[in-house]
Amino acid sequence: MINEFKGKVWKYGDDINTDVIFPGKYTYQKMEPEEMAKYALEDLDPEFVNKVSDGDILVAGKNFGMGSSREQAAIAIKYAGIRVIIAKSFSRIYFRNAINAGMPAIKSPEAVEAIENGEEIVVDMKNGKIITSKGEFVFPPYPKTVMEILENNGLINFIKNKIKNS
User: Fold this and answer.
1) Do residues 19 and 68 lie in contact, with contact meaning Cβ atoms separated by under 8 Å?
2) Per-domain residue ranges of the chain
């Protein structure tokens, strides 16, 4: 069961679109997720993939993931090492793609304002808390089915396991 994430923060601003998250020039190239990860945030932060560590947390402003519906934008960040995204707001499609990829996307404008780039924070999924150096911020826990999708590392695995266990 996913209870807690602890990691270093990568903080960015508002209106980060899917073309910045996973550059469009790679969209129609056949790649495995590990290869997609090499291009995560390439146009926004060229050093990101060389410095990100498994378990890190991405924090962004409003409207994160706006733009196209490309799933690679969620997959690339996840396979680069990001385990949770916290933003002031998400585009609906990106939010769904992140969940489907097995990565929590948490809306918490107050936490985003308080979190500093590079600090280590804790995301307590079970109790709906983001713990930062400036305090704790509460978010509504995910519904049971969404937690099951996350615990199965994405929607495809969730469905496969449901079929296998039925």
Assistant:
1) yes
2) 4-164
pLDDT at 39: 96
Average pLDDT, integer, range 128-157: 95
Assign a CATH topology to domain 4-164: Aconitase; domain 4 (3.20.19)
- On whether the pTM is more than 0.70, the answer is yes
HEC string for the chain:
CCCEEEEEEEECCCCCEHHHHCCHHHCCCCCCHHHHHHHCCCCCCCCHHHHCCCCEEEEECCCECECCCCCHHHHHHHHHCEEEEEECCECHHHHHHHHHCCCCEEECHHHHHHCCCCCEEEEECCCCEEEECCEEEECCCCCHHHHHHHHCCCHHHHHHHHHHCC
pLDDT of residue 42: 94
